[in-house]
Amino acid sequence: MSSFVSDPRDFYQVQNPPPGTAIEPTELEISQGFAKGPNPDPLPKLFQPLKVRGLLAKNRIWLSPMCMYSAQDGFATDFHLSHYSQFAMRGAGLVMVEATGVLPEGRISPNCLGIWKDDHIDGLRRIVNHMHKYGTIAAIQIGHGGRKGSTIPLQL
Description:
Elements: H1 27-31, E1 50-52, E2 55-57, E3 62-63, H2 78-89, E4 94-101, E5 113-114, H3 121-133, E6 137-143
Parallel strand pairs: 3-4, 4-5, 4-6
Antiparallel strand pairs: 1-2
Helix pairs in contact: 2-3
């Protein structure tokens, strides 16, 4: 795997406030008719933090898991790092990684992520650490395809 840059700010300009934060309109936006003025209402729920037991999400913008079918023998690739990191960089409060097989025979496809080997941890850790740098919670959808699991590539 390629080396991981520990500080994402080396590659993009830090935004203030960070993405995913609700802001008041500027005077220019109000004068040009793009906004009506300061909002007297409380912050919309979407941008309010949410606490679930001991976990505090910075907002309620959460990404559902998507099967990307881009793993190699269950290992996360650079594709996964870029795919999931883009949502963290844009301010999502929580990003859930795709269905991840607990056994190689139970994958949905031969290209699904896996957690059946300890060796899979490093690739997933890269993704989690990167998301945490943006204050995003990392979650994982664990799965097993049952008797319909597929580990043989589809031949058309």
